[in-house]
Amino acid sequence: MYAVIKTGGKQYRVQAGDLLVVEKLDGEPGAEVAFGEVLMLGEGEAVTVGAPLVEGAVVTGALLETRKGEKVKIFKKIRRQGYRRTRGHRQTESVIRVTSVAGGGKETKWDGAIDLTPKVILNARARGLGDAAVPATIPTAPVKAEAAPAPKKKAAPKKAAAETAPEAEA
């Protein structure tokens, strides 16, 4: 079962278990979020379109984190006048894990576990930095112990150079 919801002036097609990045929503990480503006519900070939909303349909999810998005650069230039200005902007966004889609007497739930580890920590772990590179203000989830990498083999000594030197003197 899937639904089309409206939030932050945009529409999203979601189903249970989806990871959704939307405009900033209020709440702490782990809080439950409910989207009441469901524009359409669908399951296979059966589609219910609202006029403008589907009555009684609700999409719920868990707020994983609120973060800043990708940087957008704004560059202005007037040619031959020596005028150049560069500015940047990072929009705040919320990451939501959709846990259930309900409406029309049916409900689909996601039965996975919600992990509240922020993207900053996941990126640091992927680069091999662990949790040490993350500021103390961000809560961390425990890290699984990984096996140490195998030690590298040393290069074999060069015998050819040592053997040819005495022969050249003789």
UniProtKB/TrEMBL annotation:
Family to which this protein belongs: Belongs to the bacterial ribosomal protein bL21 family.
Origin organism lineage: Bacteria, Pseudomonadati, Pseudomonadota, Alphaproteobacteria, Caulobacterales
Low complexity: compositionally biased ranges: 141-150, 158-170
GO cellular component: ribosome
Alphabetized HAMAP family for the sequence: Ribosomal_bL21
Subunit structure: Part of the 50S ribosomal subunit. Contacts protein L20.
Protein name as annotated: Large ribosomal subunit protein bL21
Gene name of the encoded protein: rplU
Pfam families per record: Ribosomal_L21p
InterPro entries, sorted: bL21-like, bL21-like_sf, Ribosomal_bL21
Stretches for region Disordered: 141-170
Keywords: Ribonucleoprotein, Ribosomal protein, RNA-binding, rRNA-binding
Reported function: This protein binds to 23S rRNA in the presence of protein L20.
Organism of provenance: Caulobacter rhizosphaerae
Source organism superkingdom: Bacteria
